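Lab notebook, bench 4. Still working through the backlog of constructs that have no structural model yet. Next entry is a single chain of 129 residues. Request: give me the structure tokens for it.
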Amino acid sequence: MKDLYIRGHDADHKRNRRSYSTIKPGSLKYRYNNASFLQESPRRMTSDDINFKRLRWRSRRGMLELDLLLLPFLEEVYKDLSNQEQQAYAKLLDQDDPDLLQWFSRKSLPADADLRRLVIMILERVQAK
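Model written out:
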């Protein structure tokens, strides 16, 4: 009786091995099982990367006029700003959309000197193009 169990177990093992050998190179199943993206360890995001992604998300305001000003500024200029200017940009994103629209349409300027400097910097950048 024990012999039959072992033979049955061996037969199952051979059957499973045969089924794996039917995966041919070039087949979709082979490519999925040997995909390099599954074997590589993912790149860990730094806190700077996370903060930049958060700022990018916050820069998407839902108003086309503001999106056209803030997103390119963030992508192209933000990393070159000083620490104080980067903090001012984060503070700028805390402001309400109607206020931002007033400032960027040159109908008024912010009372805060840091915000005023940043608004002028963004507007000059757009005019230079």
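Notes after review: The mean pLDDT is 80. The domain at 47-128 is CATH 1.10.150.250 (DNA polymerase; domain 1). Flag for follow-up if needed.
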